């Protein structure tokens, strides 16, 4: 299931506790420690949340087959976000929802990321920064994949513009938008 709507992106335990009391169906865990992860995911699932992990930001986990196997067997997330094609491939291999995160720094980065997406074949793409509606449209047209907009989204108008440009969801750590 590809998440839709606003998806809170959690950076600390205070925000984690707070988001569990909201009606949001999905959350993204950023900057987590391996020792906390299993309990956090289990607790979030007891609160009926879908949990997506930013694989690249898990402290203490190596981006290899064994790291992915550990996540699948022990942590049991609903999906993975990563900037790395290898991690996306591992997630797909293990039937996890794979969200390729890409940073739009310039046109060269866009071209390189589109090439990576064709190779890794993610289920969905997260475009950062998510405040460039024209680029959301372009990445969606070029990839044919659902787009999540994230990064620098601070106002309702940013959310509206991204959704109108074709994004299916918005990730944000800005609690006022939750």
TrEMBL record:
GO term, biological process aspect, one: glycerol metabolic process
InterPro entries: Aldolase_TIM, GlpP
Keywords, sorted A to Z: Glycerol metabolism, RNA-binding, Transcription, Transcription regulation
SUPFAM superfamilies reported for this sequence: GlpP-like
Any one GO molecular-function label of the UniProt entry: RNA binding
A Pfam entry, by short name: G3P_antiterm
Cross-referenced PANTHER family: GLYCEROL UPTAKE OPERON ANTITERMINATOR REGULATORY PROTEIN
Function: Regulates expression of the glpD operon. In the presence of glycerol 3-phosphate (G3P) causes antitermination of transcription of glpD at the inverted repeat of the leader region to enhance its transcription. Binds and stabilizes glpD leader mRNA.
Protein's UniProt name: Glycerol uptake operon antiterminator regulatory protein
Origin species: Oceanobacillus limi
